[in-house]
Structures are given as structure tokens and as C-alpha cells.
């Protein structure tokens, strides 16, 4: 989730995130952040401080008081040391000053997601599968396997959330974002393609619930 009131900057960040295969949702005010995070699951939050309706530090305080665990990257023009200390002490996980380099923003986001998942390695290993989030590559038995974007994103999401079961609606939101209009069987189609590439067990079906990561091969 991106919370940024500057339309040009917001559009630019969203474009960068989409190019890097993130699925961003963008809010221009802070008042809707807590409700959005209660409704949906996000891997990270990029939070501006100078919002028009409520200060970003107040949004952060509300999130942490509600025990919301989402990793938070503050993205702001407030570059003095006191504000950086206040932001980190208020529960932010990282602090980046505007103007910023897009590559650094992306690297910091990958690091936040990696740490929040309890991983140290930049790659994700699962049996014969290896996911490289920075390179957007999936290897199977040490060979790079070409897959469609949505299949890649689906397998990457399951690999970074091992053991968790997700409903079809949750996976549609992860892959396509809020209010996506897609075919009713789109997740089933993606799962079918992954099973053809990596074996029938790579994605397990949990009856009457949804899907989780299985064993490839």
C-alpha cells in the first residue's frame, strides 16, 4: 500500500512498483489506512508523513496501537534527524528521504518483506524451487523456468507464505488488486499452468477453502 497525497509522485511510485511486479494500492489520505489494512493483507506500507487530513506519524501510531504488523517504510521530505528518530521510534521499519532513487526504494521494500517473513537469504528456497525476487526468476532444478507474470506472482506469493492457505478471493486481490474484474476461474487456470510446469503437487488444493504451497516435482 502506498499512502501519498502528491498526485505526480504517487503516479510515479505506482508505475515503478507495477513494473517490478508489485500490485500497489494507492491512498491519498491517512484516514482510510487502518480500515484498508483490516480488510486486506499487504506485504508492506509506504507512508508519507505530510498528509492532508492526518499526520503520517499519527497513522503509524494508530497502526501499532492496533498491533498491525505490516512493515512500514516512511517516505518523506522531513529529513532532519529528530523526525527520523521519531518515525523509527513510533514503529516504522525504515525511513527514506525525498527525493529518492527508485532502485533504492525497491531494494528497501524487498528487504522489509524479507525480514518480516523471517528470512535472511535474498532468495526463497522450497525443495527443488528457488525464487529470486530481485531478478524475478524462478529456478527448478537449477534451471530458470519461464512462466507468465500472474503464474510467477502466484507461485512467488505462496513461496513467501509457506503453510498458509488462501481463498480464491484473497489470491485474486493479491494478483490483480482491489475491485479487479477477472474471470471466475482465473486462479484455477493459473494453478493448472503451474502444475504443468512444476508438477501436480506444487500447489495444493485445500477443499472448500483454497490453495497453499505444495511440493514441486
Q: Provide the helix percentage.
A: 40-55%
Largest sheet: 5 strands, parallel
* Cross-sheet strand order for the largest sheet: 2-1-3-4-5
- Return the domain count: 2
E-strand count: 11
What CATH architecture label of the largest domain applies?
3-Layer(aba) Sandwich
Tell me, briefly, the overall form. globular
Uncertain runs: none
Span between N and C termini?
Answer: 35 Å
- The name CATH uses for the topology of the largest domain is Rossmann fold
CATH level 4 superfamily of the largest domain: Response regulator
Quote the average pLDDT. 92
How much of the polypeptide forms β-strand, as a percent range? 15-25%
Spell out the helices and strands N to C: EHEHEHEHEHEEEEHHHEE
Structural class: alpha/beta
What is the number of helical segments per DSSP (H or I, 4+ residues)?
A: 8
The radius of gyration computed from the alpha-carbon positions, rounded to a whole number of angstroms, is: 18 Å
Q: What is the CATH class name of the largest domain?
A: Alpha Beta
Domain Response regulatory: 1-113
DNA-binding region: 121-215
Modified residues (4-aspartylphosphate): 48
Domain OmpR/PhoB-type: 121-215
Features:
217 residues; five-stranded parallel beta sheet; phosphoprotein; WH-like_DNA-bd_sf; four-stranded antiparallel beta sheet; Rossmann fold; Arc Repressor Mutant, subunit A; alpha/beta; 2 domains; single chain
